[in-house]
Amino acid sequence: MTPAELKHRLVTLFTVFFKISAVAVGGGLTMLPMMSKEFSEDRKWVSEEEMVDIVAIVQSVPGIIAVNMAILTGSRVAGLPGVVVASVGVVLPPMIVISLLAALFSQFSGNATMDHIFLGVRAAVSALILLSVIKMSRSVLKTLAAKVIALAGFLLLVFSVDAVGMIVGAAVVGLVLSWIHYLRLKKAGEVTK
Fold first, then answer.
1. Are both 179 and 118 inside the same structural domain?
2. Rounded to the nearest 5°, which phi and psi values hold at 87?
3. Together in a domain, 8 and 45
4. Which pTM does this prediction carry?
5. Do residue 132 and residue 45 come from a single domain?
6. Same domain, 80 and 172
7. How far apart are CA 110 and CA 85, in angstroms?
8. Number of domains in the chain
């Protein structure tokens, strides 16, 4: 990659993460639909399947989902400089907003109009998260096993099972299913090694 290409990628990374972080209200999960569109649909930085994997990783590791996403995507697109630029881009807007809100909090605390505005914002955020789930499920839920694992995971989350434990459990189930599939292929003589 030439210095000019690196500079372009870094500017793009910062701009994309800053823009998404500036308009996403509600944290990392609310950013996922926008990130998925930017990264896999518009810019082709990652495939839909890779995006699903990245989402699983950023939710499984400790830390803020948006920052974890910036680290993984920044690294993939522009290495260590990409990590730094994407992380700054995703953190800067909330820092500015929180600073302003902290200064104005006493004036808006308990204000019925503001309460109604945030009620509407929360409803819109819920719709965005649901849209993200629907889009990602199309690329993942192609087999009966995947559908069963997803349903089991959903039910476990409904009953308040820890998300990290559920993801690790689903990975173990996927590994076991893969091993069973391999053994079947081997028995049928379709595996040479």
1. no
2. -65, -45
3. yes
4. 0.60
5. yes
6. no
7. 37
8. 2
Same domain, 51 and 125: yes
pLDDT digit string, tens, across residues 93-117: 989 988 887 887 777 777 888 788 8
- Using alpha carbons, list the distances in angstroms from residue 32 to 3, 104, 108: 30, 29, 29
User: Do 88 and 171 share a domain, yes or no?
Assistant: no
- How many residues in the chain? 193
pLDDT of res. 55: 83
Asked whether residue 17 falls in the same domain as residue 72, the answer is yes
CB burial of residue 55 (10 Å; 0-12, 13-18, 19+): buried
Q: How far apart are CA 190 and CA 183, in angstroms?
A: 10
- Written as one letter, the residue type at 86 is A
Residue ranges making up the domain that contains 12: 3-138
Q: Note the pLDDT of residue 148.
A: 84
Mean pLDDT of all residues in 13-20: 94
Contacts of 131 (CB under 8 A, 6+ apart): 33
For the ranges 87-96, 119-128, 148-157, the one whose mean pLDDT is highest: 87-96
